[in-house]
Structures are given as C-alpha cells and as structure tokens.
C-alpha cells in the first residue's frame, strides 16, 4: 500500500530564532493546514520576542538552488515569500521562479508578502531592494499582501481610514500582481480588522474582529502561509483569502505570551487539545 502525496507548499523566507515568525511560522501553518512544508531560506536572523539584533544573508545562488531542488523533485502546488533581505536575493528568486514555473503566468500560485521590517521596526530588507520587489516580484505575484507600513513605503499612501484602503489597493495593483490584499492590522483607530482583496475589478471585504492583544508577532506570515496552504490545495484566490482570514483571526485570538517582549499568534490553534 502507498499513501498519496499531500499538497506541497514552499516558503522563501528568513528564519526567526525565537520561532514566532518567518520560516517557522510558515512551516507550522502549512502543517496545521495539512500541507507538506518545503523551504528556501534567504537569511538567518538573530531574533527573540524583543526584536531582531542582526541577520546573516544566504548567498543568492544558494537561495536559487534551494528553490530549484525542491520544485524539480518534490514539486510544489503553491509558493510564498517572506523576508528577502537584498536586491540580489530578489533577482535570484525572480529568475528561478521563471525557470521552474512559479508565478501568476505559470501553474504554481505565488504569494508575495513584501516584508520590509519586523514589528519592532528592525529592518529586514535593504532600502535599495524596494525597486526589486516592485519591478521583479510584484509582476510575477498571484497575490501581494502588504501591511499599511509597507503600503506607505511602496506607494507613498498613508492610509488613515478604511475608505483609503481601496486607494492603496489600486496603487499596489498598478505594480502588476494578479490580486492585492491590503491588511488592516495597523489601522488601530478602526474597532474592526477589515482587510481588502482587489483584482482590478472586484473589491472583496474580509471582515473580522479586532482583538485587544499585544502578542501579534508573525501575524502577517501566518495569514500569507494559510492563504498559500489553501492555494496549494487548489482553492480560488477569493476562497483562499477567506480561509486565511478565518485562520489568522483564530490565530490572533489564541496568541500567547513568550519572553519579555511580544509573543506570537498561534499557528497551531487547530491542533490544541488536552490529550497526549
Ligand atoms: N488585533 C488584531 N485582531 C484581529 N486580527 C488582527 C489583529 N491584528 C492583525 N490582525 C489580522 O492579522 C493579519 C495580519 O495583519 P497585519 O496588518 O498586522 O500584518 P503584518 O503587519 O504584516 O503582520 P506582522 O505582525 O507579522 O508584521 C490581517 O488579516 C489582520 O487583519
Ligand atoms: C524572519 C522574519 N520574517 C518576518 C518577520 C516579520 O514578522 P513581525 O512583523 O511579526 O516581526 C520577522 N520578524 N522575521
């Protein structure tokens, strides 16, 4: 007897030694969603609940080789990016995605989370890499998932109300992705957390409660990797994002304290159980 191969997702991202965000959050989320996790590590961060004190970049050719090794043998049914660190790594990823068939014009859906800094404000992407994100990755993306700080950095739009999120979505859409998801986590004046999904025509609101919690480390990664999990199983973009929104809402609700700083959202809320 042999069992069938499950859906496989690839995360192209940095590690978080504290285990709250990055590759760790992505792999846990893939696992919780019943998806086999594969990785292409871009950088190793020195990180805990208080912040990021440094990182070591992986050579671009090693990042490319990881992607190629995984896709050509294991095959992946969806891929996502997180921390990418440098322009050279972004170039290597874009070239490799074209080579192995990842992206909006290929069969493997590609979620690009334009991570620029940690929630503590520590920079995770060099300033000169923003052009690479815009010119090389966004046009290949099936979905881009900026938070409001990333929207400001990439488009100059300072979103201060729910109405302005559509302006942000339109400006991000002009960079060439198939879909845009604007995340409302940083719109703290809003009593709810309503994210917006846009494809140039449809505007889909993703409503959700706003929980009064301090432990939200890894929320962006967890949302993007739960969406990627649903895409890996063949979901359409609107239903993948609706699934992701349900997943992250429960993950924030079940966030837990860790260390002296900010704890992570729970990627394993679905598995919580009091039995061994
Ligand atoms: N306090 C909250 N209560 C409920 N949902 C939240 C809360 N904060 C963030 N979210 C949700 O979490 C997801 C990630 O949003 P956010 O805007 O915080 O992204 P991010 O800044 O990239 O996350 P990160 O904290 O990893 O940097 C979104 O779906 C958002 O609506
Ligand atoms: C390796 C890595 N990737 C992503 C984040 C962003 O997560 P957060 O905004 O919650 O700090 C991070 N801190 N570290």
If you had to describe this structure to a student in words, what would you say it looks like?
- This protein has 276 residues and is of the alpha/beta class.
- The protein has one domain (8-153, 214-268): UDP-N-acetylmuramoyl-L-alanine:D-glutamate ligase (3-Layer(aba) Sandwich).
- Helices cover 35% and strands 18% of the residues.
- The protein contains eight helices and nine strands.
- The protein has helices at 22-32, 60-73, 87-100, 130-137, 148-155, 164-173, 219-232, 237-253, and strands at 8-16, 36-48, 51-57, 78-81, 110-112, 143-144, 179-182, 195-198, 203-206.
- Strands 3-2-1-4-5-6-7-8-9 form a nine-stranded mixed β-sheet, with helices on both faces.
- α3 runs parallel beside α4 and α7 runs antiparallel to α8 (237-253).
- The longest helix has 17 residues, at 237-253.
- The radius of gyration is 17 Å and the shape is globular.
- The structure holds adenosine-5'-triphosphate and (4-amino-2-methylpyrimidin-5-yl)methyl dihydrogen phosphate.
- Adenosine-5'-triphosphate binds next to α7 and α8.
- Adenosine-5'-triphosphate binds at residues 21, 119, 147, 183-186, 193, 195, 208-211, 213, 216, 218-221, 223, 245, 248-249, 252.
Strand order of the largest sheet: 3-2-1-4-5-6-7-8-9
Task: Say which CATH homologous superfamily is assigned.
Answer: Ribokinase
Which residues sit in consecutive blocks of at least 5 with pLDDT less than 50?
none
Residue share in helix: 25-40%
Count up the helices: 8
Number of distinct beta strands: 9
Q: Structural class, from secondary structure content?
A: alpha/beta
Q: How far apart are the first and last residues' alpha carbons, in Å?
A: 28 Å
Rg for CA atoms: 17 Å
Tell me what the CATH architecture is.
3-Layer(aba) Sandwich
CATH topology, what is it called? UDP-N-acetylmuramoyl-L-alanine:D-glutamate ligase
The string of secondary-structure elements, in order, is EHEEHEHEHEHHEEEHH
Classified by CATH, the class is: Alpha Beta
Overall pLDDT confidence = 96
Q: Could you state the oligomeric state of the chains shown? A: single chain
